[in-house]
Amino acid sequence: MEKHDILPQTIYKFYCDEKILEKSSEYIKNLEYVPITHNLSSKDRRLNTHRKLNKLHDWFQSCINEVTNDLNYNDELAITQSWATKSMSGQWHHPHSHPYSIISGVFYLTGSNAETWFSIPSMWDLPDVFGSSIGDDNRVIHKNKTEKGCLVIFPSTLFHSVNEHYDSESRYILSFNTFFNGSMGNIKNAAGAYLKIL
Questions:
Q1: What is the pLDDT of residues 67-108, one digit of tens each?
Q2: What residue spans define the domains of the chain?
């Protein structure tokens, strides 16, 4: 028997300038955090509106533009919101995706033993037509290491989670979502729209 891996997928990685990283990290670590399901989130979920994080978000936007150019997207995407997540020792993050967003990003402000687990159903999973969950163990999982200063950009529909963080220092990340901004589609053919992200 031979086994062949097919249909590879792509995520994008970028690495931040050290000066921007350090200034942003200091600011983000001093934000107010509130408990969520299994860890903590910044109380403010619109960090993209914070003047002291302008350089960081400008860099995010340049990375988003590189991705959309590489994917031959015709429409502009802009950051709609961003938020920080803090995980202390023993905390983790449940599997989820990001609704109302086209592409999302995770920026690692610190290192950690914890990894971001991206997952999709296997093509070998049986459809749930018989009320069974046969095949759930076949999910295709990619474990992305937490690298300080690394930005990972991925489709917002892609399920992801974080395994348990057990380092003594807290794990900090900044996430963002995007949506269409400006003219999209084909207005002349009555198949378009114009939106402005605030």
A1: 999 999 999 999 999 999 999 999 999 999 999 999 999 999
A2: 17-122+137-181
Residue among 154, 84, 150, 160 nearest 111 (CA): 150
Could you say which residues of the chain have pLDDT below 50?
none
Q: What distance in Å separates the CA atoms of residue 128 and residue 121, rounded to the nearest whole number?
A: 12
Give dist(CA 184, CA 195) in Å, integer: 8
Q: Thinking of the domain 17-122+137-181, which architecture would CATH place it in? A: Sandwich (2.60)
The number of angstroms, rounded, from the C-alpha of 6 to the middle of its chain's C-alpha atoms is 25
Q: What share of the chain is helix, strand, coil (3-state, %, to 5)?
A: 20, 40, 40
- As a whole number of angstroms, the distance between CA 143 and CA 145 comes to 6
Q: Which residue has the tokens 């610190």?
A: 110
- Asked if residues 191 and 185 have their Cβ atoms less than 8 Å apart, the reply is yes
Q: Please report where in the chains the tokens 């609704």 appear, as a residue.
A: 99
User: What residues have CB less than 8 Å from 11, skipping those under 6 apart?
Assistant: 118, 142, 144, 152, 153, 154, 158
pLDDT (0 to 100) of residue 137: 65
Q: What is the pLDDT of residues 99-117, one digit of tens each?
A: 999 999 999 999 999 999 9
Burial 139-174 (b: 16+ CB within 10 A, else e): eeeeebebebbbbbbbbbebebbbeebeeeebbbbb
